[in-house]
Amino acid sequence: MYDLHPHLDAEVEPGTNILLTGPPLAGKRALCLDLLASGTENGEGSIIVTTKDSGDRMLKQFAKRTGYEGRPVAVVDCVTKQQGDEVPERNRVKYASSPVDMTGIGIQLSEFLQAFYQDRNIAQNRVMLHSLTTLLMYSDLQTVFRFLHVFTGRVQSVDGLGVYCIDSSAHDEQTLNTLKQLFDGVVELDEEGVTSVRLADS
């Protein structure tokens, strides 16, 4: 089981994917990072897929929560190459060319999952994707839906925990409802914090 305390009052089965939805500045990214950091402290793997901030920025945010040196923490950075910055591949950070490069994102995620789950025998791994809103800015709903279908399936296949952010104010109800079908649970936030947690019966 994945224990989500103290950030969420829940435990979930391995292979669970959760959508975090709320307006800008509701703290979705912070909650995702908190959930991953508490896993890291328990010896679990953490993989951050970022379509909004650089990998280095995300690692700085992560380091404020827990030390990650020598621990299985990795980032798939979909931002830096798109900005034209030169990037040396590092053990901890892999790069996709842009948020449109969903094939590349999937490949990099799979490589990290394989490295942690198969090569290093880390049984539990937490994955966050920040943010689905960015993906939807660059690609249509159908493309993003297909990508997420594969992505969530990959997390499920390694008994992982996936947490995904979406800006609820940026999309219509139909888009949100279409995407929600892919997830085992939905956590809603507002500026005050978490307002509702709906998870599949564990």
Automatic annotation (TrEMBL):
Gene3D superfamilies: P-loop containing nucleotide triphosphate hydrolases. This is KaiC/GvpD/RAD55 family RecA-like ATPase. InterPro entries: DUF7504, P-loop_NTPase.
